[in-house]
Amino acid sequence: MYDKELAKKLKKILQEYIGNELKAKELASLAKVDKNKRKDVIHTLNKLRKNGEIGYNNHRYFIPKKAPANKQLIGTFDARPLAKNKSFAFVICPDYDVYISSEDTLNAFHNDTVQIDIKYTRKHKKYGIVTKIVKRFKEHFVGNVSKYKGRYYLLPDNHRIHSDFEIKKLNNASSGQKVILKVLYWGDRHLNKLPYGEVSEILGKAGEPEVETLAVIKDYNLPLTFPEAVIQELKDIEPEIRQQDYENRQDFRDLPTFTIDPASAKDYDDAISLIKNKEKWELYVHIADVTHYIHPQSQLFAEAVNRGNSYYFPQRVIPMLPEKISNKICSLRPYEDKLTLTVKTVMNNDFKILNQNVYESVICSDARFSYAEIDDLFEGKQTDIEPELADTLKNMRKLSQYLSKQRIKEGYLNFNLPETEYIFDDEGHIIDLQRSRETDSHKLIENFMVLANEFIAKKLSHKPTIYRVHEDPDEDRLYELQQLLKFYRIKMKLNDDLNRCLQNTLEKMPNAKYHRVFDRMILRSMKKAHYDIKNRGHFALAMNNYTHFTSPIRRLCDLIIHHQIKSVLSQQNDFFSKKDLAEYADTASEKELVADESEREIDLKNKIKFMKSKVGETYKGMIISVLPKSLIVELERYPVTGIVDITNLKDDYYVFYDKNMSFSGRSSGKSYKLMDELEVTVARVEDDIYFQPIVKE
Q: The whole model's pTM is what?
């Protein structure tokens, strides 16, 4: 429990150690708190954090620097509350966020860099006013043309853009088309003047699948073509392997080798082999040697840095590298010699690793399999897989199952988070939506790639490199989650071993219904993984050393790691300075966020398009989230979520309970909470999907 006297003592200690960060255990020891009262220290520290009296970073506490009143700051404008019709926005500053009233936003838009004055602090929250737009995040917006009372307006696609734009020049555009608008005037909130601009490009008819995908690509400013300098450089790359390229490489062409990928994949950057005899297992993970063709000083490398990663949309891919590299020269296609980097892992019959190494190598894949084919084999169905490869795959499955058990024993967190699979007709229209499922074939590839990635991270740990980092979760968020889970009769016992704590919580879920709601909620309570030159470990994988090495065709980090490994193998100096690596890590993290956001945007557009034909239909659903003014319901039939406005429940006045994520009727006591099942009708589909609940008497 919170202890006022203990709070004073802890703050005094932190003042004495100002400039340093201390763990809770260290503070408890300095405060001479008995072991049986250590929980009081945690609760008191959490209260001090909530009040803004102390700071917190990676399990360590400190006295934060206080900003003086009226200090001018530069930050990033966050308009998401305004877009939800709230009366405020935020400016994200390096040390804290600042509330901005809607009247004080000037004419800032989402992600603009702005200058603010802090006017006052109340209840440990800072309030300010935007005084200047330092830099516009973008000057072109994508949206639909709409005509109203003789005037034309752009309705932005991006839901974070909190204003419509008047169109002064249509430039041949018409109502119902998807266009790009160049802003000429940013508006004036005080004079009630809308921003306006002119159409700079017509993308096509709004609602068409290709047009909607193109709209997202344009909105996120993703590159559709490669620069001329890159194309010219490509011409000098010979597709055939030269005789000298085979020299000083391990020849693994006689190994039974194959790739396993989605049926639609064209860029195969990993292949696997396994030799099993009486004494040991030899696992080979072969990764395309993209760095043989792409030097750090090349235009191809510069463009890979610019793109950061490949972008995968339904029926369309924006590759990090040109197709000549990604789909042909470096893709590990069957019956073709390919240059690779191979991680070899030797284990005894008890699966204990005897040794690991990495080699420059050459392989020749014997087959290209889809996940579905391998699962058919594992499920005992008839397949065309040759008996020798079938035996190898069955042994691989045994090894993978052991690796899964071992990872769980070490604290790996296994979430059940199915993705949406789209079924298209011949014209590219979505005709069905399905939930993906994680199968043994997916797990096999994941386990083998993780094994290789961990080894490479250890191999490079003696020098500056890029790690895939997933920091420990924030204890405050876990405490809030604990209280929520308690309401739903799920015990989560917080202790020093947070991996085991969350693992146990996941294992205690009674059935799939719980996992559908709480797996994602637990994941969201954790921090986001990113790239960093500081090795902070990978919490979800329960690993101290981890990086990304296995996808150099589609990820910048992997491409750089390959260059570093080859420098180690050749005993030459690294191409990259520590500063270079830090910049590349930031770029890779930023571009990954862009990929995630753009892919989510297209996912929502596709679901909206699909559900428009379902208006008026009734489905069974389940409440997966509860917000202050609405229920979020996921349908049983489709992996689609929609909004139930709480005002549509006319039988009572419903009160929202934040801690429990539930509503309770003031008169009837009837409740709506997580995992409740209900029937809904698809009421309307606009910027989102809206359901009308069927309330049974």
A: 0.85
